[in-house]
Specification:
The chain is of the alpha+beta class. It has one helix and three strands, in the order αβββ. It has a three-stranded antiparallel β-sheet with strand order 1-2-3, with no helix packed on it. Strand 1 and strand 2 form a beta hairpin. The longest helix is centred in the middle third of the chain and has 14 residues.
Length: 72
């Protein structure tokens, strides 16, 4: 039987269990994806801290979600 790859959560090895590692993998995929700025629509947004996002292109700083730059 082939095993599903865990990606970055594979660093935990045999610790913490399957379910938690898959949840971590899903969150880290969102975090490491390319994010677009809601103001200038360019790709180039970086996370400064939890919920604080910064656009390199238009030099704007805004609050979004913890792991995603969406503004609701």
């Amino acid at each position: 039987m082939a095993l599903k790859k865990l990606g970055s959560a594979g660093r935990f090895g045999a610790r913490y269990g399957r379910k938690i590692k898959h949840k971590i993998n899903d969150v880290e995929k969102i975090l490491r994806a390319k994010h677009t700025c809601p103001f200038c629509k360019k790709v180039g947004v970086k996370r400064l801290s939890v919920g604080i996002w910064y656009c390199n292109k238009c030099d704007s700083k805004y609050a979004g979600q913890a792991y995603n730059s969406n503004v609701k």
